[in-house]
From TrEMBL, chains A, B:
UniProt keyword annotation of Metal-binding present: yes
Record bears the keyword Metal-binding: yes
Pathways per UniProt: Amino-acid degradation; L-phenylalanine degradation; acetoacetate and fumarate from L-phenylalanine: step 6/6
Cofactor: Ca(2+); Mg(2+)
Gene from which the chain derives: fahA
Domain Fumarylacetoacetase-like C-terminal: from-to ranges: 116-401
Protein name, UniProt field: fumarylacetoacetase
EC numbers on record: 3.7.1.2
GO molecular function: fumarylacetoacetase activity
Membrane-crossing residue ranges in chain numbering: none
NCBIfam families named among the record's database cross-references: fum_ac_acetase (TIGR01266)
Length: 404, 404
């Protein structure tokens, strides 16, 4: 079966066409690839063969040039790619530039500039508040409903799906201990998130209003914000998470363009507090996405997290991030924050799923409170697409290896 | 007077030789420059003329290739430069590659990878604690003496000295207000810091012990971590500073190599708490620097901050930052945290100098609690050098311009 003829209902059919960077079999060269079913199209080679003007954006070792090209170019390239894999006249030319997905090496698809992580799920924030501040009058901090809380993470440790994650060591201190101890984290956790990839930069001193979101953001990926809860708990007051997060952040190898997610757009939850004008999206187009993220440990599904429940949208996060005049760069990445729905099996972290270890998960290979060495965590997701099809997001997977 | 013959006692004499990136008069091209007195040597052009093997590191538009070259190359290049500007046989060749400092354009000298900011001054941390948590039993948080507290900042908004800083807008909320308001920050502040520039990267999953500090860190600069205290106060619980800091961070145009600061090394303050082995520097070479940073507003000196009082050293900060396996990249920048000494006129922020606005500073042009539009802030510094000379650090200056 030629790669064009993906099975009916394949979530990576021609309605999807996510972008990545790969090396062909037997080569160390990197170039932009587009996924179709279980194959990868060498998009730059195809563009050259077809005399396409987009070869200069696609025959590149990273997505950054395409990201920087802007919304009109994004649409034009997507339209061209769709034609190449669906119009019979192009198919013969293009067919030889496909590789089976199983035979290529996938790389981090873009050079990450700044990485910001948000905290946009009300369910997640309330769960965390109840776990760590059980005596507080409100499980949310007073600012939570007024601004999308976020912080900067370490962009140099963002890795592509499939990269092993070394268990971090660090300081931890139980409230009853008199001094901290040092050692490998004993509360290694995941955070199931969606990551948004900025294409078009902005000037320092200017802002990016809500309505300009789609002029700047190219697409999205899945993201696992690995977290060492014990390290984080001891270090994070007063300046926030640092070593509890900075050891690794995994992203999917495929970036799904926003244009592939038109049918997935939904309104975010009703707002309970009046928003300042720069965040008030009542008159904007729907800012949420109906994505469902599945979390699996060693192949066993432990959670399904509904992204549609996120209180703050990606457009609001972008408007907030720039309202102080901070500039955007091509390759900026921002995470949604852990995606947790209202029910027990819709939570995006083990912290919540096991209620800080109180209620272990029963897996086929034993109980889990937090991650054990050798555990493989896999996030996968899909969204509704055109004509009842599903749009698949690239999975993000990683294996925990022991501390040295 | 030829540029070699800097006046006796010039803090930018041949014992200093900091590195920057400049454009010659009438050109937009960037190349590495070395400062001598009030002149800049086009180091790449000089290297080419002398047939030096270091031309490939110096005839570049950024310091990154030199940073990545490693400690042996750093020493070799410095030795060569010293010879070029001091040995008569080289002077005739090199003289034509000098430009007056006043005629060149200085640029951000390196591409910033990740930016981390620490909080290493005990005086600063205690002052902030007393101002914001007056009822707390201890002005330091319980973790402060056990680890160097830090967080990631926005590397995309690091700018070179001389760049205007636009007053940021954002949310603020007084405790007595029922909801936040939006507008230009009314508590815009400075933080006088030293920045450390990483040259040699490290692998993800590995650590950089205390003793490897000089194998990885190339040199240091002055750094002003502009801070909007009102925005910061409302946003920072629980995930730390974000928009209150991310709008701009200014660094000096000159990076002083560690080799120029040998005579400035001093032991840090006596440790009051036992340190975990990875931070215990009792048997290491002295980790502090005897730098004095002067803070001036519109040319009027308001503070002189002694860097030798910093509790945590740059080597400890590097060891801590990587102890969880986080990798380093060429161009990583980390700030020391605000430098504040024990007395009132040794404080590195207006927050402390005016005790959160309670005690305004009397300047020739009026009182100051926080910064006003048009204010020019300048940090300068020197350290002891060989034979009684001073080693000057490049100044970092910036003017506050009104919010749009």
């Amino acid at each position: 079966m030629p790669p064009f003829d993906v099975p009916e209902g394949d979530p990576f059919g021609p309605h999807n066409l996510p972008y990545g960077v790969f090396s062909p079999p037997g080569s160390a060269d990197r170039t932009v690839g587009v996924r179709l079913g279980d194959h990868v199209l060498d998009a730059g080679a195809a563009a050259h063969a077809l005399g396409s003007p987009y070869a200069s954006l696609l025959a590149r070792p990273t997505l950054n040039p395409l990201l920087a090209a802007g919304r009109t170019a994004w649409s034009d390239v997507r339209r061209a790619l769709t034609a190449w894999v669906t119009v019979p006249a192009h198919r013969e030319t293009v067919e030889r530039f496909f590789h089976p997905l199983s035979e290529v090496t996938l790389h981090l698809p873009f050079e990450v500039a700044d990485y910001v992580d948000f905290y946009a799920s009300e369910n997640h924030a309330r769960n965390v508040g109840q776990i760590f501040r059980p005596d507080a009058a409100d499980s949310l901090t007073p600012n939570w409903k007024h601004l999308p809380i976020g912080y900067h993470g370490r962009s140099g440790t963002v890795v592509v799906s499939g990269t092993d994650v070394v268990r971090p060591s660090g300081q931890r201190k139980a409230p009853t201990d008199t001094a901290p101890v040092f050692g490998p984290s004993v509360r290694l956790d995941i955070e199931a998130e969606v990551g948004f990839v900025v294409g078009v930069p902005s000037e320092q001193g200017s802002t990016v209003p809500l309505g300009a979101y789609r002029d700047h953001v190219f697409g999205l990926c899945l993201l696992n914000d690995w977290s060492a809860r014990d390290i984080q708990a001891w270090e994070y007051v007063p300046l926030g998470p640092f070593l509890g997060k900075s050891f690794a952040t995994s992203v999917s190898a495929w970036i799904t363009p926003l244009d592939a997610l038109e049918e997935a757009r939904v309104a975010p939850p009703a707002r309970t507090h009046e928003l300042l004008p720069y965040l008030d999206d009542a008159r904007e187009e729907p800012g949420g996405y109906d994505l469902r993220i599945t979390v699996a440990i060693n192949g066993h599904e432990v959670s399904e997290c509904p992204f549609s429940t996120m209180y703050w949208t990606a457009a609001q996060q972008l408007a907030h991030m720039t309202v102080n005049g901070a500039s955007l760069r091509t390759g900026d990445l921002y995470g949604s924050g852990t995606v947790s729905g209202p029910t027990e099996r819709e939570r995006g972290s083990l912290l919540e799923l096991t209620w800080n270890g109180r209620d272990p998960l029963e897996l086929p290979d034993g109980k889990r409170t937090f991650l054990e060495d050798g555990d493989v965590v896999t996030l996968s997701a899909w969204a509704p697409g055109p004509d009842g099809a599903r749009v698949g997001l690239g999975e993000v997977t990683g294996r925990v290896v022991p501390a040295p």
